[in-house]
Specification:
Order of helices and strands: EHEEHE
Structural class: alpha+beta
Radius of gyration: 10 Å
Oligomer: single chain
Shape: globular
Helix content: 10-25%
Number of helices: 2
Number of strands: 4
CATH architecture: 2-Layer Sandwich
Number of domains: 1
Mean pLDDT: 96
Strand content: 25-35%
Distance between the termini: 7 Å
CATH topology: Alpha-Beta Plaits
Strand order of the largest sheet: 1-4
Largest sheet: 2 strands, antiparallel
């Protein structure tokens, strides 16, 4: 199964992924960056939508 990867250096902290897919993505207020929630479901239906919603295009699926 594919794994979600966030390039935190490119993340602009808009929280679009968190709003779209809160069971997979969290937000670090201190760093103002998104992160993956431990134990997230890699098959969650909202992942593709979260990737598409990212204006920085810093989230991808890797095989």
């Amino acid at each position: 199964m594919a794994e979600v990867v966030i390039d935190v250096d490119e993340c602009i902290g808009c929280e679009a992924c968190v709003e779209t897919c809160p069971d997979v993505f969290g937000f670090n207020d201190e760093d103002e960056k998104a992160y993956l929630i431990d134990g997230y479901d890699p098959g969650a239906d909202c992942i593709e939508e979260a990737i598409a919603s990212c204006p920085a295009e810093c989230i991808e699926l890797e095989e």
